[in-house]
Every structure is written in C-alpha cells, then in structure tokens.
Amino acid sequence: MPLIVTGTIGIDTIETPFGKADQVLGGSCTYFAAAASFFAPVRMVAAVGGDFDDHTRSTLARFPNVCVVGLETRSDSKTFAWGGKYLNNWNTRETIFTELGVLAEAPPLTPEEYRDSKYVFLANSHPSVQLDLLKGFPDRAIAVADTMDLWIDTAKTELLALLAEVDGVVLNDQEAAQLTGHQNPLTAGKAILELGPTFAVIKKGEHGCLLVHRDGMAALPAYPTETVNDPTGAGDSFGGGMMGHIARTHSAEHFGSEPVTFNMIRQGLAFGTIIASFTVEAFSLERLAALTESELMGRLEEFKTMVALD
Amino acid sequence: MPLIVTGTIGIDTIETPFGKADQVLGGSCTYFAAAASFFAPVRMVAAVGGDFDDHTRSTLARFPNVCVVGLETRSDSKTFAWGGKYLNNWNTRETIFTELGVLAEAPPLTPEEYRDSKYVFLANSHPSVQLDLLKGFPDRAIAVADTMDLWIDTAKTELLALLAEVDGVVLNDQEAAQLTGHQNPLTAGKAILELGPTFAVIKKGEHGCLLVHRDGMAALPAYPTETVNDPTGAGDSFGGGMMGHIARTHSAEHFGSEPVTFNMIRQGLAFGTIIASFTVEAFSLERLAALTESELMGRLEEFKTMVALD
Fold it and tell me: I need a labelling partner for B9 at 20 to 30 A (CA). Which of A62, A85, A271, B178 fits?
C-alpha cells in the first residue's frame, strides 16, 4: 500500500499565545507524512539544504514508517524557512518571514523505487511541481492535491491544469472561496467538482470539515479540544490521516484493483480530524512523535461516540 | 408530553442580501413553538398587543400542534417589534430598531390548565421573567433556558440565579464566551456547568453545535445547505427541535418518570439542526409552515448518513 507525498520540508520559527519555538521541523510534506505514517508506510519526495542538521533529521527519524530515500539533501543550498505568528484569534496567522531556499530551485526527483506508489498526495507547493510529480504515476489508484492562496493568486492557470488531473483536492474554506468565488462551502465544493476532481474536502479548522463528492456529501465537526498550543500543520496532518486511512483500507479491501470509494474517503475524514487534534497540542511534530496507537484509537472511538446518531 | 415555552412574539422587519420582509411574524417563542410542534404539542405563554392582526395570527394557526390559550392579547398595548439587517457575512446582524411594547409591561400569566407541563423551555427574555415562569413548574422533568448578550450585560445577577435553577442552557458561542470569559467553546461549556446546569448546548450557527453535559460530550456539524434566505429564528428553531424530540422521547420511553438522559439530549441536537436548516430557507415562519413530515424525515436521514462513521 505505498503512499507517496511531495511538498515542503521547512524550518519553522513560530510564536503563538502559548509560547515560541525556534527553528523547528515543519513543512507540508513533513506533517502529512508523520500523520499518514500511523496508518500506512509513506514515501517522501522533498528537498532540504545543507543546514538540515542531525538534530532536525532525528525528529523525522522518530516516524519509522516514513521512508526518506526520496529526501534530497543539497549541501550548497538552504532549507525552506518560515516564520509565523498566531494572534489570540487562532484563525489569524501573520507571516513574519519566508526564505525559499531549495524551493526556488529545481524540484526534487522521484527515486525509481518509488514508481510503484499507488496513492499520491501532492502537499502544498507550486502547482507545476505538483503536476510534474503526478505525471510519474500513471497507474495510481488515487491522487489528491492540497494548495494555498498564493497559488490561487499567482499560478491559477497551472492550478487549473492540476485540478483537471487529480481525483481530489483538500483545501480550507477561505481558499475554496478564493478559488471559486463562492463563500458558501457547499457551493464552492460543487464548483470545484466542475473543474475536474471527483471530490473536494473543505477544511474549516476548529469548525470541522465538509466532503463534497460526486457520490454524496459528508460533514464532521472538529474534535472539541481545549489544548491548542500550535495550529501549524493541522491541515497537512488532516490530509495525512485521511490519505493514510484510504491507502490502508483500499489496499486491504480491494487489493488496490477497484476504485477508491466515497465511503473510504468519508471515513478518512475522521482519521484526519483525530490526528490533527493531536498535532495542535504541541509545537512542531512533538505531539505526533510521542503519540501512541492506543491514544490515537482511544480518541477516535471517543469522537465516533460524540457524533453518533441513533 | 406537554411542552411549554415562554418568550417573545415579535413583528419583524428584516433585510437580508436576498430580500426584505416587512412586519412578519417572529420572536423567540414563536420560532421555538413552531419548530417543536413537529414533534410534540407545545403550549405558548406570551403576550401581544392590539396590533397583532388576524393575518399575523393566521400564520400561527398554521401550526395546529401549538396551543395559544396562553397567548395574551392586550388591546391597548403594542406587540414587540424588531427591525434587523443581515450583512453579506451572515454572522453580522445589525439591529435597526426595537420597540418593546408588551415586553416593557408585566409578563404574561401561565394559564391554570398549563400547570401539568413537564418540559419547560425559557426562550430568550429577561432572566427574571424566565425564573418567575419556571417557579410555576416544580414537578417538571426538565427546564432549559436560552439567553442573549443583552442580559449577560445588563442582568447578570438575575441570569446567574436562573442558571442555578435550570437543567440546561442553550446559547451561541459568542454568548458563551461573554458569559464565562472563555473563547474556547468547550472551556466555556464546562464553566457553565459550574454555574449549575447539567448541560450546555453551544450553538455555532453554520458551524454546528457542541453539547457539554456532565455525562459526556457531543458535537455535530450544521446541515450543509446552499439555501439561506433569512437566518432569523434559526437558534430558536434549533431549541424547539431539540426540546420537541426530548419531550416526545422522554414521555414515550419512561412515561416521564425517569430523568431525561444525556442520549436524549444528544439525539435532540440532530432534530434541532435539521429543523433550523429549514427555517433559514425562507423569511419568517414560511418554510416551517409549508414543511411536511416526509421532507423533515428525509433530510434527517440524509444528515445521519453524512455524519455516520463505521
């Protein structure tokens, strides 16, 4: 059940109302892979610079289900670095600085041994880079892309070309509105399906998520939590939990030969929700690195009880 | 299974991005009773003025399960009137005018024949009025109160006295934050339980609801809809659906002799969610007045499928 992800690996400097973390491991690819690795083996395609030190690398190594063969180290370059600050209202995030580093260079290459990957996740990066990687997997079972406001603004043509090729897209409510011109998440979701994808997952942060699929709809609240110390990576972790569940279930139930069903994606939303609820409890990957299988399954069961209707 | 509600009856003048309605039936008691009446007979205790004309009265009569014996008409007074405007962002509502009318006078009296009511809902009005009505029902199975920012600001002592007496409270996320000083809805909900109630339902509008109960928690998304023409009364309808379900289920399952359970309230959230999703489709009570049992049950089943997890 090989799951592959491309996206950014970053060195984050983060300030929240509850503390500060200097130069910690972050990035869309990282959060996705760490989260997905609880459910399925994950292959990373990403690049870092010579400044990606052993200490930071050791954080990645705490996720044994993440394969780093596709992690390119470019000794003369610098790792992507991002500084951000969250205001008291968690929904407002200020970018303090962005140093593109390796992201301004050629995208990383996919190792030959990754070619049999069936589940492809294109974590947030330039849509042309996402589309290039996607072309290397003509026999995939499913491809899902994330994106961000920057690309909707600056690379819409490339983004639309990407959307015509993927099965699904995962984005937040503001991005969905920006992409489609519709504030209503359901209307926005339907408009995204017109652009090509079979489904759109609209993430609403603390307010949960909505799945608009050609075969139906699903909606879930977020897991109600009082412990939010750093929301960075919540959305990427959500994608990881969802795709990890899809990869595991699809390979087990159909040996990968049938299409991924609406129900697999729908159930995946719960796995994404729960893993994201752990991510936000601590800075960087700390909570996920310490997370046990029984904590994860315990909270998932608790969540199922919370939303259960007779 | 007699359910009783006190609160306001209003003549509303409403403007939304989708239209305008002049002098239509509204008020917390009205929306609650209309919504609850799909599940249980409802008794109204409220007052109107001499200007409450036959046309407006005939809208109420479209809900045959609503008993209006407790509706006092004061020919020399005026009905409470409210004018409001919703901005493009549905969450922002401007009050254009408020004419208290009968609300500035003595509260309506509870008819003797209503004394055997077992399920008491105190829709939004002054907490002293709510508490006075409540005292008339010492043998109730459950009492639940709604409130608003105005009373938290201007009548907090009276509101706290009320909260010490009720089993549950229904309020929106902003009101919960204002009452407790906690922005996090879960923290706010727990703080409300410290004030006396066994449970708090925190309504989040388009983002669903959260139930914090001494016996557990529950959370539901809103029903995803593209049809929002007038959000007035959504919260009161939610309360009506919830209490109507509780009244029906509790009287059927325990003949009213056992306490109302966490699960009854939890399931009630779904009924509140669905009935509110119809309310917002049209101005005033129009959609509820036209609503059929099969439409209601159809959407409820659809909603259950949307949130169902394996």
Answer: B178
